[in-house]
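Q: What does the predicted 3D structure of Peptide deformylase look like?
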Amino acid sequence: MAMREIRVIPDPVLRTPCEEITTIDDRVRALVEDLVETVDDDGRAGLAAPQIGVSLRAFSWNIEDEIGYVLNPRITALSEDEYQDGEEGCLSVPGLWYPTTRAWYARVEGIDLDGKPVVVEGTELMARALQHECDHLDGMLYLDRLEKSVRRKAMRELRSQL
């Protein structure tokens, strides 16, 4: 296992949609170990494979002292009439926090390292993390979800840091 370096914007891997995992081999097992090891640090709620430079559909989470992972996750349910607004940040966009609207509840389905079905669901912070990490796997950042005026401000601040 290894604590991996976090890729930051404008690294192109963060904007690349990830490939499905078709074979669970030693490479995928090592990826999961690295995702779990790297997310297990103060202030980290989730970590997607592209954030450590790997364009495969996998992420880990660290919510309320529970650490886990899922392979080939897909969002299968979101609350349609309950939302949460709150400051959101990203390890790949360091130092920027902006109000981001997310569904209050989310459910993700995928598989584990044995190829068995996995369902991960939750509300509030867990729901936010599930949505955030699935966005990463589709080549999106939370900045893409900001309201237009807030996004302009965020992009100005980001450019000033680069």
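A (community wiki): The structure tokens above were generated from the sequence. The longest helix spans residues 26-39. The longest strand covers residues 66-78.
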